[in-house]
Amino acid sequence: MSTERLVVAATMGPAVHDVHAWRFRVVSGGIEVHADPARFRGMHDPSGRGLHLGCGAALVNLRLAAAQLGRQAVVRLLPDGERPTLLASVRLARRGRVVRAERLLYAATLRPFVARGPVVTGRPSAAVLGELGVAARLEGAALRVLPGDGVLRAVLTTVGDSPGAWLRAGQALQQVLLAGVMRSVSVSFLYEAVDEGLGPGVGFPGEVAQVLVELASAPAVDRQGERQRHLERVG
Q1: For residue 79, which of 91, 71, 87 has the smallest C-alpha distance?
Q2: Residue 55 carries which DSSP code?
Q3: How far does CA 73 lie from the centroid of its chain?
Q4: Closest CA to 59 of 110, 16, 4, 107
Q5: Strand 86-94 and strand 152-158: pairing?
Q6: Residue of 141, 137, 70, 138 whose CA lies nearest to 103
Q7: How far, in Å, CA of 128 to CA of 134, rounded?
Q8: d(CA 42, CA 19)
């Protein structure tokens, strides 16, 4: 697969926003990821934080697409201070065979993030939450569960509040979304006015809340019951 086709594969994945506010540009030695503020102008995002979150998510799709080719996407965030719209540069290096987890995550990028409706009522297990937390940490963010009953709420946090931190939070959010698809966990999120959703007195010293998420899991599927009902219908 050529670099151009790799870019096409990366753009096919679902994104944090319906508006794709980035451009992949093929250059000598790799790929550049540029912000496209004009496409994002209609959204309320005066600081550009939401735009950076979306671009960070797109980077995850690009990295996963490269892995399917046995290539490692070596990412450098904000490589040129004189070009503020250049959010990342990506160099493609050779690597070993793609691992199963990367294949599953890439497959998840090809599936839309669909709301599951009223059947999604359960709280994810501690084990699943642990997996989502690991996915966030690998991108330089943390998934902090908030106190309360009912739908499980959590917040993605970073150390610092800068364009680089926003890009890391966007990558973490995309990894959590994809891991949720794999684990039948519905993930909804809000990045505007995050602090207002934390509740009184809730904070994480030394960390900045970037994205508020709600997590709910579908009930376990009764495969045996499904087979029995199918036999009854066809019998």
Answers
A1: 87
A2: H
A3: 17
A4: 16
A5: unpaired
A6: 70
A7: 10
A8: 10
| Model pLDDT for residues 4-26, shown as the tens digit of each residue | 767 776 676 555 666 677 888 98
Q: Strands of 30-35's sheet, edge to edge? A: 22-27, 30-35, 86-94, 71-77
Cα 179 versus chain centre, distance: 9
d(CA 45, CA 7): 26
Annotate 63-117 with DSSP letters as a single string: HHHHHTTTEEEEEEES--TT-TTEEEEEEEEE--PPPHHHHHHHHHHTS-----G
pTM, two decimals, is 0.84
In a 3-state reduction of DSSP, which class is residue 203?
coil
* pLDDT tens readout for residues 39-68: 766 566 778 888 888 889 889 988 998 888
First and final CA of the chain: distance in angstroms?
A: 49
Type and span of the H or E element at 6 = helix 3-11
- Torsion sign across C-alpha atoms 31, 4, 72, 21: positive
